Amino acid sequence: QQQVKQSPQSLIVQKGGISIINCAYENTAFDYFPWYQQFPGKGPALLIAIRPDVSEKKEGRFTISFNKSAKQFSLHIMDSQPGDSATYFCAASISDYKLSFGAGTTVTVRA
Amino acid sequence: GAGVSQSPSNKVTEKGKDVELRCDPISGHTALYWYRQSLGQGLEFLIYFQGNSAPDKSGLPSDRFSAERTGGSVSTLTIQRTQQEDSAVYLCASSLNSGGAAGELFFGEGSRLTVL
């Protein structure tokens, strides 16, 4: 049973557009919510992370929005670039231990 | 090395054979994880090692799977009597610590296992 549900499975966006990926969780004990980015043939790499004491975190073109009451969080990629084409995984854990990952979203940015 | 190193990068084996996958974590990282990534699926937790503590084996799918970590560094994941459903990419990750602020996992590039 997947503890973190991620959608959509894939999306295509034009260069300069906004990519939005959504995740939902059930376990209210989760207190760490990272996003990982994976390019083909590579291992996932940490992109950005948030803890539930804030509702939004921005790093460059990447923003996490967090809604604790709805148990949802999302990743927004602003001004999407072809180099952003990758698979994105949301995850959640209790105190940074044993991350539970979503199923992943494949993002394709068309030039 | 600078990152997490995994070997072999690719392994093709016949059903029923045993395989060993190796992981060299980043030097100084005390936590080590194995995850499995099947086609179109997310990352499935398999096992977790932290320092000298007993490993968390709660994610191992069957008793055909086992793992060890020697000297708090290198880890080997062993799959006995492989089945076709074991075909996947096996990812190893390490982190500086468990708990506190050091939550970032550093992943290797994975070992792709194909069971014929």
Describe the structure in your own words.
The complex is a heterodimer of chains A (111) and B (116). Chain A has 111 residues and is mainly β. Helix content of chain A is 0%, strand content 58%. Chain A contains no helices and eleven strands. Chain A has strands at 4-7, 10-14, 19-25, 33-38, 45-50, 56-59, 62-67, 72-77, 86-94, 97-101, 105-110. In chain A, a hairpin with a 4-residue loop joins β7 and β8. In chain A, 31% of the residues are buried. The mean pLDDT of chain A is 94. Chain B is mainly beta and 116 residues long. Chain B is built from no helices and ten strands. Chain B has strands at residues 5-7, 10-13, 19-24, 31-37, 43-50, 65-69, 75-79, 88-95, 106-107, 111-115. In chain B, a hairpin with a 5-residue loop joins β4 and β5 (43-50). Chain B is globular, with a radius of gyration of 14 Å.
Q: Give the terminus-to-terminus CA distance of chain B.
A: 33 Å
Biggest β-sheet of chain A: count, sense, barrel? 6 strands, mixed
Which structural class fits the helix and strand makeup of chain A?
A: mainly beta
Instruction: State the separation between the terminal residues of chain A, measured CA to CA.
Output: 37 Å
Largest sheet of chain B: 6 strands, mixed
Overall pLDDT of chain A, averaged?
94
How does the SSE layout of this entry go?
The complex is a heterodimer of chains A (111) and B (116).
Chain A: E1 4-7, E2 10-14, E3 19-25, E4 33-38, E5 45-50, E6 56-59, E7 62-67, E8 72-77, E9 86-94, E10 97-101, E11 105-110
Parallel strand pairs in A: 2-11
Antiparallel strand pairs in A: 1-3, 3-8, 4-5, 4-9, 6-7, 7-8, 9-10, 9-11
Chain B: E1 5-7, E2 10-13, E3 19-24, E4 31-37, E5 43-50, E6 65-69, E7 75-79, E8 88-95, E9 106-107, E10 111-115
Sum this structure up briefly.
The complex is a heterodimer of chains A (111) and B (116). By secondary structure, chain A is mostly beta strands. Chain A has strands at 4-7, 10-14, 19-25, 33-38, 45-50, 56-59, 62-67, 72-77, 86-94, 97-101, 105-110.
